[in-house]
Design goal:
Elements (H helix, E strand, L loop, with lengths): L8 H5 L5 E15 L3 E7 L7 E6 L6 H4 L7 E10 L7 E12 L14 H6 L8 H23 L3 E2 L5 E2 L11 E2 L9 E2 L2 E2 L10 E3 L4 H11 L1 E9 L12 E10 L3 H22 L1 H10 L4 H10 L3 E4 H9 L17 H11 L4 E7 L15 E9 L3 E8 L4 H10 L8 H8 L5 E7 H9 L20
Parallel strand pairs: 3-5, 6-12, 14-15
Antiparallel strand pairs: 1-2, 1-4, 2-3, 4-5, 7-11, 8-11, 9-10, 12-13, 13-18, 15-16, 16-17, 17-18
Helix pairs in contact: 4-6, 4-7
Length: 464
């Protein structure tokens, strides 16, 4: 028998004409038998839809083995792609040879009945085989490509910033330590652990952001972006937080806060439009089984300009709303998720960009406004999620930046290289960070961040 190159299920389903000889490979979703033939639903992960295989007793010498195939088994099929005799599908494959590659026993947990997301998280190594999570991770793949496409089309340079760092970019101290020191017998000096004897001869951590390094490249290449994993040791075991997640961080020289907000809003719309265009089957499934209002909400976001409001005006609206919030709201306090969602879902009913925050609640690197009270920071909020983008114009004035560091109890000497960027040809510049999983939650309708990450890392859990 001639060895054919495999064709994906997706390509077979999208064929424009019958094919006399075709080969597909994948996993059995279901099998049902008649007297002299069996119907097998086959899926290889390339498509939401299955390809129906017709297995005839008269043409297959191993037909008895095929009748014992169960859900989850893997097979390789050669045959002819012909117009389907049944409803609901255009093509089916009449098999002239079926090789059983791997069997699955009765303990296989993904049966035809529906399964809850909570159960599927317990079998994260198998959940990509389910319809829902196959769709989620195909959309994640597509939007990962779209991220690069967006920035490459606009002349941005992709850079890789360190995963191991000695800098606490956010000044929050919620970092994972990286060390080879023997925890049972650490070297000590003057009663304290002597990190000079550690692998990097200093304290180091997993990065929470590549922003500081991206600024260095933006002040040489004008427009850059990073897209990689970040880590935060924040003990927030919520549906919106993960300890390991992916961040997209563009940085632009000669760009102020307004230009930064423009890019962030354009970027969010671009990703939504890309998913709507390139993942129609997946998006229809999300609207059917996850959130019936999803497509209307996404299209509404695409069709309308984003609202912009200052932090102080947002606080005034929230205080006058008459809503009973769990967390207090007043000038100088961070907006909580419930506040952000009220602004986007109940008041403006569209995405909102809040800008000009009090300097006391924002990191050291944000540019102080002329009033000396606020910084040129912005948060982009979307319905159902809250904040998905946070950014700012960076402080380009050396003396002001040094004062900001001291105000945050930071030693400017530890950031000499960062201060050099203000000594040598400083320019206004700005950037933002977008949590990839947050935008995936918004676009797929997934209510839990654990359901848009292949293997979630959360407080108390690092399985698989």
């Amino acid at each position: 028998m001639t060895q054919l190159s495999p064709t994906s299920v997706k390509d077979a389903l999208q064929s424009t004409a019958p094919i006399e000889a075709i080969r597909v490979q994948g996993w059995v979703r279901t099998r049902r038998d008649s007297k002299d033939f069996s119907f097998i639903e086959l899926n290889d992960g390339s498509s939401l839809r299955n390809l129906q295989i017709i297995a005839k007793k008269e043409t297959l010498p191993n037909y008895a083995d095929i009748q014992r195939l169960s859900t989850g088994a893997s097979i390789s099929v050669n045959g002819a792609l012909v117009p389907s005799q049944g409803k609901g599908q255009k093509w089916e494959l009449v098999a002239d040879n079926i090789d059983i590659v791997g069997t699955a026993d009765d303990s296989y947990p993904l049966q035809k009945k529906g399964h809850t997301p909570e159960f599927l998280r317990e079998i994260a190594h198998l959940r990509p085989r389910s319809n829902l999570f196959g769709c989620v991770f195909r959309v994640r793949s597509r939007l990962g490509f779209a991220v690069h496409q967006f920035f490459q089309e606009r002349g941005f340079v992709y850079i890789h910033t360190p995963i191991i760092t000695g800098s606490d970019c956010e000044g929050a101290g919620e970092l994972f330590r990286v060390s080879t020191i023997d925890l049972n017998n650490p070297p000590r000096k003057d009663g304290e652990i002597d990190y000079a004897q550690d692998f990097f001869a200093r304290q180091t951590y997993l990065t929470v952001s590549g922003q500081l390094e991206a600024e260095a490249f933006a002040l040489a290449l004008s427009k850059v972006y990073t897209f990689g994993p970040t880590f935060r040791a924040e003990n927030s075991n919520t549906s919106r937080h993960a300890s390991e997640f992916w961040m997209i961080e563009p940085e632009m020289a000669f760009c102020d806060l307004n230009g930064n907000m423009d890019l962030a809003e354009e970027f969010v719309k671009y990703l939504i439009a890309d998913a709507r265009k390139h993942c129609p089957e997946e998006m229809e499934l999300f609207a059917k089984v996850v959130d019936k209002e999803l497509l209307a909400r996404l299209d509404f976001v695409l069709d309308r300009p984003f609202q912009r409001i200052t932090y102080s005006d947002a606080v005034d609206l929230l205080k006058k709303s008459g809503e009973k919030f769990e967390f207090p709201i007043d000038y100088g306090l961070n907006l909580q998720s419930e506040h952000e969602r009220w602004l986007t879902e109940k008041h403006f009913r569209c995405p909102v960009t809040v800008f000009n925050f009090p300097k006391e609640i924002k990191p050291f690197y944000m540019r102080v406004n002329d009033d000396g009270k606020a910084v040129a920071a912005m948060d982009l909020l979307v319905p159902g999620i809250g904040e998905i983008v946070g950014g700012s114009q960076r402080e380009e004035r050396l003396e002001v930046l040094e004062e900001n560091m001291r105000r945050h109890n930071m030693d400017p000497a530890d950031y000499k290289w960062y201060l050099d960027l203000r000594r040598y040809g400083t320019v206004p510049h700005s950037g933002f960070g977008l949590g990839f999983e947050r935008i995936l939650m918004f676009i797929t309708g997934a209510p839990n961040i654990r359901d848009v990450i292949p293997f979630a890392r959360t407080p108390g859990s690092a399985e698989f």
